[in-house]
């Protein structure tokens, strides 16, 4: 028995109603599976879904998390909350030409709350929320699947009856442990899909509540229909797919509430049959409810369109090569091939990858390509299912197959390239909602097999084995999402032709200081995609640091030739040209970088260094001042201003700049050191000493800090302290320039004083 049906007393109207509902075909009758009370079923689903992804709780920020969270200013308290409604998911203005137009303010708001509660960018809190969300969604799936598989029936007391407790539990478990969900749960950016799914399901359940008082199909609650529309809007504000729930609610209403036979309706429309009114379109209020859903959906889309602007998002060919193909045939063939791969990921989620772009899936350009077989298989299965959904004499079968196909296809439509170009080839996260349809079809197929099978327990053991394998796969995949190194390396065997995979492995190695290994992966990325400007830029940077300037210049020059507005490559090219002492070309490259990126403090800093090398001191100071205006915490620019003013004898100005810098960055020991030097030369020994000691406390192993403090004491006449700090400096760096000579001078002076004293 299930929790919402138990009653130890004499049979009442609720039990009688339940028996009447059971006269419809029941999927549970033929399968050998666990029969648990609803509350226990939900506890089991929650625990198993938690078990699948629990090991991701202490993972790092990985892949897109950096841009969506760490570099997203919308998460910080100083950013007004109102800005979230005018920015995209990545923190860019929706009006910007570079915006991806992904409008998900409610998801960003949850990130901001996470950040504020944690007091910074600590990933544990973010991961825990994702795991809790997936567990909650999986629990809700028990109710959703009980409606989709068993139908919507209420007792006289308005209590919804679970007419398919075994199959709804199986379907919910299949959903909870599906490995393709790992990206949504273990990747923090997947929060958008999880929140969208949560409100998507709440919208569906809210729509079902509209019929709680329904007896003959006449009565329904307009309030709950409107609540469903609002929850659909909330789902869309978490991720774009959320709007599709309104279409699915309409399909559910037609098939389950009104029990429409789609094929019969089409035939009557074609023959202009006057008996259309018998179908109940108007009598049961279906058209009115669909009008409410469509009006709500249209209003939501219009408001979003006004906020987003009319311009489409800007994507490049490497993001979605099929969408840039000139031939309509090539586009259609490849889109369908992508659909077949998505279907395969649902059926066999073994080969999973964080990114499927950049050559991972080569384009099909000819009908002789053997991969056409995948398209044929996909459409053979879909057409077969559609025919059964339309033509079967079994109304129960028609309903389940149509709902399964609806939940499989409709939430996937925004990612299908049919209405607009999307910025990916395959994205595992977008299959989170369509997997509901897959679970319906799988469970229904299992019930049909069980009906025919003589040894039902063997079939049940096989399905249980699939669940166990999926749990293990989820745990393994979650562990790969714990760090970028594991995530990127896991993709090498799945997508060896993906230039971005090699690029990310190389970048991860470079960040860890392993430049030799990074060069290998960057070179492979450029070989796989000769127009991969970001790989060229990073490879050029490493070669520049290794003083391989000629090849670095060639790579960076090629990068800016391919993408003339690539500001970072122009700046790095300027640094290489400066090192090659081609100063005019370097200056031109720096200004080109600034032309393409107006607010570029690092470029102004490097331009200042160029001017300093050319003894153009005023220009150098102006460039560094621009850098600090754009980025007030730019320590290197402040330091160079202080040092240049110090070296040119402008001690008063150097002191003023130093105090201004320390006011903005009070804990920067390098600024303390530079200002201490200036104060020492201005004979402000006490203040200089205090700054030197503070800098040494922050960085006790800097030989120059001890050496310059020793010089201060030497000038000040504190010879014993000078001797002590000279010795510490020489111990830290025996080759420190000037320190040994100053120490020898001090020793001779001390010896002379001792002789005089003797």
From TrEMBL:
EC number of the protein: 2.4.1.109
Start-end of each TPR repeat: 499-532, 533-566, 601-634, 703-736
Range of residues in the leader sequence: none
Pfam families assigned: TMTC_DUF1736, TPR_16, TPR_19
Primary location group: endoplasmic reticulum
Residue ranges occupied by any DUF1736 domain in the UniProt entry: 311-383
SUPFAM superfamilies: TPR-like
InterPro entries reported in the protein's UniProt record: O-mannosyl-transferase_TMTC, TMTC_DUF1736, TPR-like_helical_dom_sf, TPR_rpt
UniProt-recorded Gene Ontology molecular function terms: dolichyl-phosphate-mannose-protein mannosyltransferase activity
GO CC, one annotated term: membrane
Listed name of the protein: dolichyl-phosphate-mannose--protein mannosyltransferase
């Amino acid at each position: 028995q299930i929790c919402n049906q138990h009653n130890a007393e004499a049979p009442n109207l609720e039990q009688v109603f339940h028996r009447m509902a059971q006269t419809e075909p029941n999927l549970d009758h033929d399968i050998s599976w666990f029969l648990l009370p609803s509350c226990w079923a939900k506890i089991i689903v929650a625990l198993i879904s938690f078990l699948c992804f629990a090991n991701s709780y202490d993972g790092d920020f990985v892949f897109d998390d950096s841009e969506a969270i760490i570099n997203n200013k919308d998460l910080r308290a100083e950013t007004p909350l109102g800005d979230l409604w005018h920015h995209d998911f990545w923190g860019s203005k929706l009006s910007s030409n570079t915006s991806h137009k992904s409008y998900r303010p409610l998801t960003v708001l949850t990130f901001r709350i996470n950040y504020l509660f944690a007091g910074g960018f600590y990933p544990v809190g973010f991961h825990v929320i994702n795991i809790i969300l997936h567990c909650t969604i999986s629990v809700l799936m028990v109710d959703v699947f009980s409606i989709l598989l068993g139908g919507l029936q209420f007792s006289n007391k308005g209590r919804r009856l679970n007419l398919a407790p075994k199959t709804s539990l199986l379907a919910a478990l299949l959903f909870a442990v599906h490995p393709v969900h790992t990206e949504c749960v273990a990747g923090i950016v997947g929060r958008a899909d999880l929140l969208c799914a949560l409100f998507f399901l709440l919208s569906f359940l809210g729509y079902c509540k509209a019929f709680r008082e329904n007896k003959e199909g006449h009565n329904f609650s307009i309030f709950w229909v409107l609540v469903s529309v609002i929850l659909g809007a909330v789902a869309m504000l978490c991720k774009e797919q959320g709007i599709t729930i309104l279409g699915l609610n309409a399909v559910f209403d037609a098939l389950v509430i009104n029990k429409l036979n789609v094929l019969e309706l089409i035939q009557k429309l074609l023959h202009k049959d006057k008996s259309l009114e018998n179908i109940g379109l108007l009598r049961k209020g279906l058209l009115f409810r669909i009008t409410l859903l469509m009006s709500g959906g249209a209003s939501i889309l219009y408001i979003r369109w006004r906020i987003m602007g009319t311009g489409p998002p800007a994507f490049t060919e490497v993001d979605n090569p099929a969408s840039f193909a000139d031939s309509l045939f090539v586009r259609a063939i490849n889109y369908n091939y992508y659909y077949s791969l998505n279907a395969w990921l649902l059926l066999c989620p073994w080969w999973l990858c964080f990114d499927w772009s950049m050559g991972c899936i080569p384009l099909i350009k000819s009908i002789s390509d053997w991969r056409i077989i995948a398209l044929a298989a996909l459409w053979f299965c879909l057409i077969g299912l559609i025919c059964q959904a339309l033509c079967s004499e079994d109304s129960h079968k028609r309903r389940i197959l149509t709902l399964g196909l609806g939940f499989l296809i409709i939430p996937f439509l925004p990612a299908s390239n049919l209405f607009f170009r999307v910025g990916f080839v395959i994205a595992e996260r977008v299959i989170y909602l369509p997997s509901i349809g897959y679970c319906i079809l799988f469970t229904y197929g299992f019930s049909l097999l069980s009906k025919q099978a003589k040894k039902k327990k063997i079939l049940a053991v096989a399905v249980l084995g699939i669940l166990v394998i999926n749990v293990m796969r989820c745990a393994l995949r979650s562990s790969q999402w714990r760090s970028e190194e594991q995530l990127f390396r896991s993709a090498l065997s799945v997508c060896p032709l993906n230039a971005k995979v090699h690029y990310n492995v190389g970048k991860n190695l470079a960040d860890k200081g392993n430049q030799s290994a990074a060069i290998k992966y960057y070179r492979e990325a450029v070989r796989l995609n000769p127009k991969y400007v970001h790989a060229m830029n990073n490879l050029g940077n490493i070669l520049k640091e290794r003083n391989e300037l000629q090849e670095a210049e060639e790579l960076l020059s090629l990068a800016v030739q391919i993408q003339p507005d690539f500001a970072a490559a122009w700046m790095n090219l300027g640094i290489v040209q400066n090192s090659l002492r081609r100063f005019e070309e370097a200056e031109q490259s720096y200004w080109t970088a600034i032309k393409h990126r107006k607010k570029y403090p690092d470029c102004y800093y490097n331009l200042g260094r160029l001017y300093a090398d050319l003894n153009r001191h005023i220009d150098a100071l102006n460039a560094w001042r621009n850098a600090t205006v754009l980025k007030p915490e730019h320590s290197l620019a402040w330091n160079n201003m202080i040092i240049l003013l110090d070296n040119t004898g402008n001690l008063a100005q150097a002191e003023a700049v130093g105090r201004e810098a320390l006011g903005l960055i009070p804990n920067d020991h390098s600024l303390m050191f530079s200002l201490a030097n200036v104060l020492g030369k201005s004979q402000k020994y006490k203040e200089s000493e205090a700054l030197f000691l503070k800098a040494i406390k922050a960085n006790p192993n800097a030989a120059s800090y001890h050496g310059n403090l020793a010089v201060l004491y030497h000038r000040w006449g504190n010879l014993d302290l000078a001797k002590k700090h000279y010795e510490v400096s020489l111990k830290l760096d025996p080759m420190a320039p000037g320190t040994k000579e100053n120490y020898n001078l001090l020793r001779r002076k001390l010896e002379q004083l001792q002789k005089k004293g003797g």
